[in-house]
């Protein structure tokens, strides 16, 4: 069977209200204990599969979950068990049999969950949704991770009812969208809490790590690869890109809002903000790449994302000045300055990320993408579609030619035009990454390398422009800040010349070939 659900993290401030609401609606209370299994080298997790034994009341259920058609879908197989023992013979004759037959190491217990669940079947005119509010913890070695989440699982009727209900709860209780499963979180916990060694007989032995650093538990979610088949059509490619971009945005938004990251250090929180903004840029690039071929995303939701991007940019600019540019200026001889407080640079990223308006927008975007995917599933079998590859390559080459023409006169462009060109370079690079599986590797390798160098150079130049705007207001009351202005303008001139040289190299890289 296929399971579809959307999950929201419940912060401390919302726990009482949600419990009261569900109890008043006569929600059923269930105690759940689950044990998750994998090999020491995480062979199941790397395949996107979770295998567990769960005690549900007095009975044990063996469950295996595999990825579905979109980030909210899972293929799920359940079997009742008479005892808490795995039985892999249950998968004989299924598509999962080869996976278990080819495991390199025996399965072992990786992590556990202990949860108290309040469950309610929400019946509405559009369908039925199971609401499950879980409170408890994940356990692996010496570490534990709190579980505080509410899941909305589609049972019957219109899938959009599930999204509408989740959106309503998110806005009412200030909940945070988090699409990770317990298995994903538990796998990360076990990766930090457990280690593997080899004994004298050559067998892999799992051991507990003493005093693991929980502050390093969750790294920022970086851009992932988009898997495209050679004859993929426009809708399939569009959905693959959208799902990848939204996964990066949603995960880093949750991290930036404080989900599982209360003990993360400053560097990690800065990276959450950075990767969240990268995800939004990639989403914009995806929409640009498929513009005119497929329905756009809801403009109201995109406007909310743009506002969040700008607010987070204020914090990001402050971090760049404080952690990158200012140390360089000090080494160059900058006199002491009184630096403005963080509050003067805009709202904290955690506040921006947890904003109910942003959370509602993310739910709406997921809803739109799932709806588009469902429509494609219904129509693809009944109609043939053309591969999108020729259209994509033509569009990429048109952009490459346009960028090369502007870049040939980079040093003559205004700062605003330079900034616009930088955004075009980023967009082209992201779109090359999206299209990577459709391109000739020997042809685009050199182009991608030069684009990376151009993007890095323009990024450094933008940091210098940002820093000048940061220090310029300080010159009125702190004349020594003019030292920074002079140094920055000299560095800007040098970066412009270097960028001009790289654009010439980009022109020599040539067009993207179709074969």
Automatic annotation (TrEMBL):
Segments forming domain CYTH: 1-193
Signal peptide positions on this chain: none
Entry GO MF terms: inorganic triphosphate phosphatase activity; metal ion binding
All copies of domain CHAD, residue ranges: 231-512
Xref: CDD domains: CYTH-like_Pase_CHAD
Cited PROSITE patterns: CHAD (PS51708), CYTH (PS51707)
Superkingdom assignment: Bacteria
PANTHER family named in the record: INORGANIC TRIPHOSPHATASE
Name recorded for this polypeptide: CYTH and CHAD domain-containing protein
Lineage, highest ranks first: Bacteria, Pseudomonadati, Pseudomonadota, Betaproteobacteria, Burkholderiales
């Amino acid at each position: 069977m296929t399971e579809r659900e959307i999950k929201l993290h419940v912060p401390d401030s919302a726990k009482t209200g949600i419990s009261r609401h569900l109890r008043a609606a006569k929600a059923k209370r269930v105690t759940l204990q689950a044990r998750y299994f994998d090999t020491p080298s995480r062979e199941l997790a790397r395949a996107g599969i979770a295998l567990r034994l769960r005690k549900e009341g007095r009975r044990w259920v063996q469950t295996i979950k595999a990825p579905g058609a979109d980030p909210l879908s899972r293929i799920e197989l359940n079997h009742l068990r008479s005892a808490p023992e795995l039985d892999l013979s249950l998968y004989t004759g299924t598509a999962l049999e080869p996976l278990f037959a080819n495991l390199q190491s025996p399965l072992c217990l990786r992590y556990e969950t202990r949860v108290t669940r309040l469950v309610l079947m929400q019946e509405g005119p559009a369908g039925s949704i199971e609401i499950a509010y879980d409170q408890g913890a994940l356990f692996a070695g010496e570490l534990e991770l709190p579980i505080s989440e509410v899941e909305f699982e589609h049972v019957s009727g219109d899938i959009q009812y599930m999204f509408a209900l989740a959106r309503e709860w998110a806005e009412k209780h200030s909940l945070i969208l988090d699409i990770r499963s317990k298995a994903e979180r538990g796998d990360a916990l076990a990766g930090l809490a457990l280690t593997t060694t080899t004994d004298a007989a050559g067998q892999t032995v799992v051991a507990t790590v003493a005093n693991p650093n929980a502050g390093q538990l969750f790294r920022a979610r970086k851009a992932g690869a988009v898997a495209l088949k050679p004859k993929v059509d426009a809708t399939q490619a569009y959905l693959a890109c959208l799902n990848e971009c939204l996964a990066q945005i949603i995960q880093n938004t949750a991290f930036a809002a404080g989900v599982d990251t209360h003990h993360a250090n400053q560097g990690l929180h800065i990276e959450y903000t950075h990767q969240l903004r990268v995800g939004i840029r990639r989403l914009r690039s995806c929409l640009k790449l498929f513009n005119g071929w497929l329905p756009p995303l809801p403009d109201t939701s995109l406007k909310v994302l743009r506002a969040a991007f700008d607010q987070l940019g204020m914090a990001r600019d402050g971090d760049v000045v404080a952690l990158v540019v200012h140390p360089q200026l000090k080494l160059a001889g900058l006199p002491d300055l009184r630096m403005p407080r963080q509050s003067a640079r805009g709202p904290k990223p955690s506040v921006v990320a947890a904003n109910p308006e942003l959370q509602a927008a993310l739910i709406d975007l997921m809803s739109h993408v799932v709806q588009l995917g469902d429509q494609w599933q219904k129509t693809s079998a009944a109609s043939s579609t053309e591969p999108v590859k020729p259209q994509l390559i033509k569009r990429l080459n048109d952009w490459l030619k346009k960028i090369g023409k502007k870049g040939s006169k980079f040093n003559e462009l205004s700062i605003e035009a330079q900034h616009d060109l930088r955004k075009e370079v980023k967009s082209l690079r992201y779109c090359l990454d999206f299209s990577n599986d459709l391109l000739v590797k020997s042809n685009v390798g050199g182009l991608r390398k030069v684009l990376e160098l151009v993007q890095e150079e323009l990024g450094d130049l933008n940091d210098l422009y940002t820093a000048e705007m940061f220090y310029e207001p300080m010159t009125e009351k702190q004349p020594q800040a003019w030292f920074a202005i002079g140094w920055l303008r000299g560095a800007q001139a040098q970066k412009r010349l270097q960028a001009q040289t790289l654009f010439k190299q980009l022109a020599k890289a040539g067009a993207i070939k179709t074969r």
